[in-house]
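Figure 2 data, in text form.
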Amino acid sequence: AAERAVGAEAARELEERTSQFILRRTTEILQKSPPPRLELVLRLRMAPPQVQAYRAILAELRLSASSRQMARALQAMLALRLLCNDAGDLLLCARRALARRNEDACPAGMPLGGYRGCSVDSSSESEEK
């Protein structure tokens, strides 16, 4: 009984000291939280320009991984995800970067400049969105 009292006092003191730094979520708060996330995965075929860009990014990713450039590898993985979700912006950036031979051709919101080998036939996609 004495040990429980000491333990309870220590727990109260710890909570008092940490309460200003730690948010403790009660059952009441958790019940108000949104429902669990629901994901739907659809497997679709990529368009030929997407496949070409995807392969070029994978090749760049392999080079980055072999030279241990982790940040570049993470950028490439993000680019692959963007390419699969909406290829338009990424393909346009790749084409612009290749045309200018510089990696700063993409807008600030895009994670990458162009990748080598990402040239896309201009007849397959409009120049501007």
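Caption note: The mean pLDDT is 69.
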